[in-house]
Design goal:
Helix content: under 10%
Number of helices: 0
Order of helices and strands: EEEEEEEEEEEE
Strand content: 35-45%
Length: 145
């Protein structure tokens, strides 16, 4: 048991079957990635493949907002398991009914942080390219960070 997959640029990806390990080698034979899962002789894989992953979570993005001492609002946003979005639209206002676009921020890794004006309520939308952004629930700005 085990598997072999040819990848771009001369890389290969191996699954060892009864040894719960997956390894990618570059064109020179140098190990560039190793993943181990389970225990030898207990966990095994019939086949292993390396491929692009597109995470599409069922949950909405998470948002936290708090007031800074300089009078602005800090907004932290993340969307666990989502991989296809590139930016955030940040909405804010003094009431839930008065939210307007305040800022558009490029995604910055797992969690993105921006400062916006002094607002009482915040909502964010993840921008995935085409169509409307996925909106989070409205968040009340915390008094202090």
């Amino acid at each position: 048991m085990g598997s072999y997959q040819s990848l771009d640029e001369g890389h290969v990806f191996l699954g060892y079957g009864y040894i719960p390990q997956l390894v990618e080698f570059d064109a020179t034979g140098t190990e560039v990635c190793t993943a181990t899962f389970g225990h030898v002789n207990v966990t095994f894989s019939y086949r292993a493949f390396r491929q692009a992953c597109r995470g599409v979570p069922n949950a909405l993005p998470d948002t936290y907002a708090c007031a800074l001492s300089n009078g602005t609002t800090a907004v932290y946003m993340s969307w666990n398991d989502a991989t296809a979005y590139t930016a955030w639209t940040i909405y804010g206002g003094e009431s839930e009914d008065s939210l307007q676009i305040l800022h558009i921020a490029n995604r910055a890794g797992f969690e993105t942080y921006v400062d916006v004006g002094n607002v009482a309520f915040v909502k964010v939308g993840a921008i995935a390219g085409i169509g409307m952004p996925t909106l989070s629930s409205i968040v009340v700005v915390q008094q202090k960070c």
